[in-house]
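Dear support,

I submitted the protein below through the web form. The confirmation email said the job was done, but the results page showed an empty box. After a refresh the structure appeared. I'm attaching both so you can tell me whether what I see now is the final result or a partial one.
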Amino acid sequence: MCLAVPMQITRIDGDIAHCVAKGIERDVSLMLLQEDEIKLGDYVLIHVGYALQKITVDEALSTWELLDQMQAEDDLRA
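What the results page shows now:
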């Protein structure tokens, strides 16, 4: 199973964006989003170091809510 994680862009340097989510920071490639207008504060889905898709803040929050629910259920099973 593949998983893309929503992150917010905090800095852009050419084709590399510094992103943050839930205290985790990563530098990711924007090469796959060359056709999109990407700016500071945007949310993107990240998979293996690449931004795959620009998303809305509501989509990012909804995805994090689902991931938190999955983690909570997994913790209950442990």
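Response: this is the final, complete result; the empty box was a page-load delay. The mean pLDDT is 94.
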